[in-house]
Design brief:
This protein is of the alpha/beta class. Helix content is 38%, strand content 12%.
C-alpha cells in the first residue's frame, strides 16, 4: 500500500481511512473488533471516531480493541469534540472548558494516554477561535494530543484559525475533514484550494453519499431497511434527493461500463481527486469493508474522471451533505439550484 503525506506534516497515512460512526449504532462490538483487525491487517492506519458517536460507545469499542490487540502504536487515532454530551450549557461547543473536559473523557474511553489528531467536530461561530486554539495548545504541550484539526468548517474559518495560530504562536490545524462525494463537490471551490496552498491534509467523509452512489435508493421517500436514512432519519434522510438518486443511477451505469462496482468507484473517485489525502470508509459490516479494501490499489483514469464530471460538474452539488453545518445557508432540494447535464 502506498502511504500519503498528511498535509505538510511528517505523518504518513493510508489512502483509505477507517471511520467508526457505525460502531455501536448499529455494529456490535464483536464485529467492530473484526473490522478493526481486518482494516489494520490490510494496511489502514488511520482510525477516526468522535465522542458523540453512539454517546461515546464508538470510542469505548476502539479503546477495548486497542487494549486487547496491543496495536496502539500502529495506528493514527483521530477523535473529535463539539456536539452536546449532556444537558448542561457547558457540555457542548469549542470552549476551553468543554474541550479539556471532553478530552479527558475521550482518553478514558479510548484507554490511551494520547490522541494523535484531535478535531473540532464543527465550528463555534460565537466563540473566539483564540480560546479554542489555546485549549488545544495546552493539550499538545501536555502530551495528551499530538496534532489538532477541524471538521466541516467553512474555508474562511480554516483560514482564520491558521492566521491566529501564526500570529499568537498557538498550535496549528493540520487537517480538515469535510463531506465530499460526487453528489456534493462544493469544497472544490474554496476549501480544497486553501488546504492545498497552506498544507492541510483533507480526509473526506461520506464518499459513498450514504449509498446513493451505489444505487441503494430507488426513490427519495422509500428508504432501504438498515440504511442511515431509515435508521436515523433527520439530516440523513434530507441528503437523499430525487436528483441525487438520478445521478446515482447514471453513476451505476457508468461504473458498469468501465467494469467497476459502483461503490468501489465512488470511493476511488474521492481517493484520486486533487487535494484529497484519503476518503473515510464507514463500514457497517465486515463484508462491506472487504468490498472497499481493493480500492487502495486502484487508479482513476482521465477518461473516467471526465465522465464523472459530466454527471455533476466540478464545484457543484445535487444533494446537501453540509446540512449538519449551521453555517451552510444554501440548502439543496429538488429545485433548479444546479442543473444536471444530460
Amino acid at each position: 500500500m502506498e502511504f500519503r503525506n498528511l498535509g505538510r506534516t511528517g505523518i504518513k497515512v493510508s489512502p483509505l481511512c477507517l471511520g467508526t460512526a457505525n460502531f455501536a449504532d448499529p455494529t456490535p462490538e464483536d464485529e467492530a473488533f473484526q473490522i478493526l483487525e481486518r482494516a489494520t491487517e490490510a494496511g489502514i492506519n488511520l482510525i477516526d471516531t468522535a465522542n458523540s458517536y453512539a454517546g461515546g460507545k464508538s470510542e469505548s469499542f476502539i479503546g477495548n480493541w486497542l487494549s486487547e490487540s496491543g496495536k496502539r502504536d500502529q495506528v493514527i487515532l483521530v477523535s473529535k469534540v463539539h456536539y452536546p454530551l449532556g444537558a448542561g450549557p457547558n457540555d457542548r461547543g469549542n470552549s476551553r472548558l468543554h474541550i479539556l473536559r471532553a478530552c479527558e473523557d475521550s482518553l478514558r474511553r479510548l484507554k490511551t494516554d494520547w490522541i494523535d489528531i484531535y478535531l473540532m467536530h464543527r465550528p463555534s461561530p460565537d466563540l473566539a477561535v483564540e480560546e479554542t486554539l489555546g485549549a488545544l495548545d495546552n493539550l499538545v504541550r501536555q502530551g495528551k494530543v499530538r496534532y489538532a484539526g477541524c471538521s466541516t468548517h467553512p474555508a474562511w474559518q480554516v483560514m482564520e484559525a491558521l492566521m491566529v495560530s501564526e500570529t499568537r504562536g498557538l498550535v496549528r490545524y493540520i487537517l480538515e475533514q469535510p463531506p465530499y462525494n460526487l453528489l456534493d463537490r462544493r469544497i472544490e471551490n474554496e476549501l480544497v484550494p486553501i488546504c492545498q496552498k497552506y498544507g492541510f491534509g483533507v480526509v473526506a467523509w461520506s464518499p459513498l453519499a450514504m449509498g446513493v452512489l451505489s444505487g441503494r435508493y430507488v426513490t427519495a421517500s422509500d428508504y432501504p431497511q438498515e440504511s442511515r436514512a431509515a435508521l436515523r432519519g433527520g439530516i440523513y434522510a434530507e441528503r437523499v434527493t430525487a436528483r441525487g438518486i438520478e445521478v446515482g443511477k447514471r453513476f451505476c451505469r457508468l461504473a458498469q461500463e468501465f467494469n467497476f462496482q459502483a461503490k468501489q468507484l465512488a470511493v476511488l473517485w474521492v481517493k484520486d481527486q486533487p487535494g484529497i489525502t484519503a476518503p473515510l470508509l464507514g463500514p457497517r459490516t465486515l463484508e462491506q469493508l472487504d468490498d472497499f479494501l481493493p480500492v487502495a490499489e486502484m487508479s482513476l483514469s482521465h477518461e473516467l474522471r471526465e465522465a464523472c464530471d459530466v454527471l455533476v460538474p466540478p464545484g457543484s452539488a445535487v444533494a446537501d451533505f453540509h446540512n449538519s453545518a449551521a453555517w451552510m445557508k444554501m440548502k439543496i432540494g429538488d429545485g433548479p439550484i444546479y442543473s444536471l447535464n444530460k
